[in-house]
Amino acid sequence: MSLNDFFSPVDHNKISPQSGFQPGQLGAQAIIYSGEFPELSKENFDIALFGVLDDRNAVNNQGCALGPDYVREKLYSLYEGTANVRIADLGNIKAGHTVSDTYIAVKTVVAELVKENILPVIIGGGQDLTYAQYMAYEELEQKADLVVIDPKFDLDGTTDVSTIETKSDAYLNKIFLHQPNYLFNFSNIGYQTYYVNQDSLRVMEQLLFDVNRLGDFYGRIPVAEPIIRNANILSFDISAIRSSDAGGNANANPNGFYGEEACQLCRYAGMSDKLSSFGLYEFNPAFDRNGQTAMLLAQMIWYLVDGYYQRKSDFPLQPKSQYLIYRATLSDNTHELVFVKSKKSDRWWMQVPYPTSHSGNDRYHLVPCRYDDYQTAVNGEMPDLWWRTYQKLV
Prior knowledge:
Belongs to the arginase family. This is Arginase. GO terms for molecular function: agmatinase activity; metal ion binding. This protein is an alpha/beta fold. The chain has two domains: 3-309, Ureohydrolase domain (Arginase, Chain A, 3-Layer(aba) Sandwich), CATH 3.40.800; 320-393, no CATH class. The chain has helices at 12-15, 26-29, 67-75, 99-115, 129-139, 171-177, 198-206, 224-229, 259-271, 292-308, 371-378, 384-393; strands at 7-8, 31-32, 47-52, 87-93, 119-123, 144-149, 183-191, 210-213, 233-237, 277-281, 323-329, 336-342, 348-353, 364-369. The strands form two sheets. Strands 1, 2, 3, 4, 5, 6, 7, 8, 9 and 10 form a ten-stranded mixed β-sheet that branches. It has a four-stranded antiparallel β-sheet with strand order 11-12-13-14. Helix 6 links the parallel strand 6 (144-149) and strand 7. Helix 5 packs parallel to helix 6.
């Protein structure tokens, strides 16, 4: 089966103005599947966008399957930035006979694009599609770090993987309990405590996962950058954006990120050399007023693309001449911590040593961090991020 068997083409009449796209608009630059399916290779494209027309497991948000073309209409009216973009629009993955069929299609497409070193940008559909996005890495036999931007933890109390139903409010159970396990780390950005069961918080702590309250980012959006830089997979639930800025969701919230903050988060994602798939979920045009949410999502994708073309290629850390090494000794002299700073981007990483029982050739694991973590170490204290990462490696 070829990839185009999964897709229905884009109806140009739905997304383009009567006079056609103007030179420089993304609609004139992208290769859009409306007749012949694009030939996918890194030589031709850097980014591949596609929609998923399935909302059967989107809890309390039926209608979000209709979202992709509304976002396309707004996205392709925007003008490209300073870079010459190479985007393929593959159309929409048709809903399968069962939801599992849709997951298989998404998994297969994402895996093939990642193999080609093309960044998939998924417009859902329900956020349960994150499970299919993650399953692509099992097919690739590749360990992955997952970052989810969401006001809730999409978990329930089920621990029997055979009985878990993958829904938009419980798909994390399937990911956490899946065997074989290809998840190295999970991070949440922007949870709101009144939506979170305290038992779920304790589960996150026991699993040494990184969860970050919405209030941690007020006036401090750069705090999110190293968290996002550590992601292979990013899943963005638009209910993480306040309803005044993105009301196109049956589960919209009065509190959340501002629209410009959401755009900044997407730019961080695009700039990350490690990020290899991006999903934007739960947009429901039935609740969108004057196309505002569709336009915000289009702008978020624009910033993702702009960030992609600002990548510095400073991960992995080669050549070594482009980096500065900093060392700090804890006050009890038990550890010397090593930090690395890129001369290209001024971004920081920590070296966390593998335990002696580690069978690989690498001596340490690199984790993105902030200058504040280095300052903590200089003051003789162990950064929490270093300790949690080391515990995962043991």
